[in-house]
Design goal:
Elements lengths: L1 H31 L1 H8 L1 H6 L1 H29 L3 H21 L3 H4 L1
Length: 110
C-alpha cells in the first residue's frame, strides 16, 4: 500500500507541476499575443464575436479555473488519510482536466 500511495503522490506532483507550468506558458502567450491586445483595445467587438470571445475570454478563464481546481484538490488531499486522499485528488483532478480539455481548440488541431 505504501508503494502505490507513493507512486500516486509522484503522479499527482507531476500533474500539479505540469499544470502550473502550462498555466505560466499560457499566461505569457496570452499577454504577449494578440488576444489580450484585442480585448483591451476593443472589448465590445471582441464580446460580440463568438470566435474572438472564445480565445480572448473563455479559453483563459476556464483553463485558469481548471488549474485552480487541480490545486485545490491536491491541497485538500494532503489533509486526509491516504485512502480518502486518492479519491479526493482524482475527483478534483478529473473535474479540472475536463474543464481544460473542454477549452482546447480541437478543430484547429485536426
Amino acid at each position: 500500500a505504501f508503494i502505490s500511495c507513493t507512486i500516486n503522490s509522484y503522479h499527482t506532483i507531476f500533474a500539479l507541476i505540469f499544470g502550473h507550468l502550462q498555466l505560466l506558458f499560457g499566461l505569457a502567450m496570452y499577454f504577449v499575443g494578440p488576444w489580450f491586445k484585442q480585448l483591451t483595445t476593443n472589448t465590445a467587438e471582441v464580446m460580440k464575436n463568438a470566435d474572438l470571445r472564445w480565445f480572448a475570454v473563455e479559453h483563459i478563464v476556464v483553463n485558469l479555473i481548471g488549474i485552480v481546481l487541480i490545486t485545490v484538490g491536491y491541497s485538500k488531499s494532503k489533509k486526509q488519510d491516504p485512502a480518502g486522499a486518492f479519491t479526493t485528488r482524482m475527483t478534483w483532478m478529473r473535474i479540472g482536466l475536463l474543464l481544460i480539455l473542454s477549452r482546447i481548440p480541437w478543430e484547429r488541431l485536426l
